## 1
Amino acid sequence: MIYLDNAATTKPYPEAVEAMLPYLNEYYGNPSSIYSFSDKSKEVIRDTRDFIADSLHAKSEEIYFTAGGSESDNWALKATAEAYALKGKHIITSKIEHHAILHTCQYLEKQGYEITYVGVDENGILNMEELKAAIREDTILISIMFANNEIGTIQPIKEIGALAREHGILFHTDAVQAYAQIPIDVEEMNIDMLSGSGHKFGGPKGVGFLYIRKGIKIRSFVHGGAQERSRRAGTENVPGIAGMGAAAKHSFRIMEEKIKKEIEIRDYLIDRVLGEIPYCRLNGDRNRRLPGNANFSFRFIEGESMLIHLDQKGICASSGSACTSGSLDPSHVLLAIGLPHEIAHGSLRLTLSEETSKEEMDYVVDNLKEIVSYIRNMSPLYEDFVKAQGKKENRDV
Ligand SMILES: *Cc1c(COP(=O)(O)O)cnc(C)c1O
């Protein structure tokens, strides 16, 4: 099997799995208990919190554990909206956010909030002029993702943070695709809130965190006990937190090397695909993108059928679109960068890890070439296109 869907989830690092086991077996004590048997549970929570805080240049008391990226996004948006409603009811986000943000925004719209969805350029980079123009007296929050999960584009986060700060507006970023993959500094980038998720960087699923800058008036997300400074009640997911902590440590240890390797293999893949398969394009910015992300569109192809053929060759990939979740609408991200529906439908996302090799890429491209031409040869649209091209060429001669 060749696993090229690391944007969907990652293979847990052995370090992460190892780190979880003692908290599933021996150290099952409730971290809120007084007796010393619970000290181990308390310690691993403290240790993970300290490490994640350090890695972001934040303070330990600014890290809150959650059940993953979606919860962190929901919390950041809903609780800020509620806490700052008297100041204003306007929120700015982008057209290419993850559904955890977009659907939360739709929910808030029903609650009487106004949301502005800022557009992006043809490479998926946020339109800064449009962002500036969207700012109003009653804007309480700007939420822009750090890096896009479909096309990998990395946003000008520092500029956005500076702009938000200048206007006294809170700035949240969904950094689920970026945290532990590329360096982030919440101080330098003026980030007030940041979402992260364990399973996107080699940790377990169902555990994540939200960084909330000290002093921000955000509401509790889960009411109950005093866990997470009374802002997110519920007995902590101790094994999950232990696994996420170990995964974060490992990710930061290998980050530099991983980035270098992934960029090299990714660029090799991109060059081969663009050079050897006709009528295809790369989606997203060629350079300002996540090291492991490649996203292509092939004309005269249905993304779904490509995925099924790739699966038969043992390749796990994604169309990076809503198609995979049972909806036939093309990806909102690809439409936002201006692709027409039929081209957006023929998209393929390949997301690498540091384990992905050049040999694997050769196998993938060789198979992809065959699959693309096989599917195209069955397409009446492609047949018409080829005929028309032939006529044109004859005329040109
Ligand atoms: C995966 C992902 C999420 C959701 O994270 P979960 O931990 O799966 O809930 C949110 N935002 C982005 C950008 C993601 O890639």
## 2
Amino acid sequence: MSLSEIKSRIAAAEAAANRATGSVELIAVSKVQPNERVEAVLEEGHRVFGENRVQEAAGKWPEFRERFQGVDLHLIGPLQTNKARQAMELVNAIHSVDRPKLATTLARLAQELGQCPDLFIQVNTGEEEQKAGILPADADGFIQDCRDLDLPVKGLMCIPPVDEEASLHFALLAKLADRNGLAGLSMGMSGDFEGAIALGATHVRVGSAIFGDRTYSA
Ligand SMILES: *Cc1c(COP(=O)(O)O)cnc(C)c1O
């Protein structure tokens, strides 16, 4: 598939949900992709990208940014506190705020740096043992704690369990965001972004449908 195809599918999903054209931000997830593929998407004029590792993002984006103006970079993967400073200096948004220790670290660094990326709180909607994210029952309290720390919380993010109906998780995330007065909803990937848009996604994170399959080297 191609970037333009994904964009037209997003536009169609926006229209079907009676939502304004352009109300959904497409984050092109470039993790692990060869530089030529990322470059091709930059050449097409796209500027919003997602990476799931700080190290990898730091390795390729400074150079791309020198050549392409206006890149908007989103960290969508787990963030260790010892990488928080580097992440904050590199990315425009972090979608994986998932625990109190990370929140307090981000707040301290925000003071020190005088800036903070837009933040999304990751919710473990499927309550999966191995998955990051705050549990749904703890979400309201954690959102309040982040606000008390003056963190710029823009929305919530989730990654539904692979073997479950994603829409149930999207609906739960939308409900949690709504009752906390949060406008941002980071949900929907290659296989389910249209369903996520129907349920209110403001940011979809699409990788393989744009770039092709990821081939991980051992
Ligand atoms: C890799 C990744 C995506 C993109 O997945 P695709 O299925 O390739 O679209 C989205 N969100 C997160 C958190 C990811 O790690």
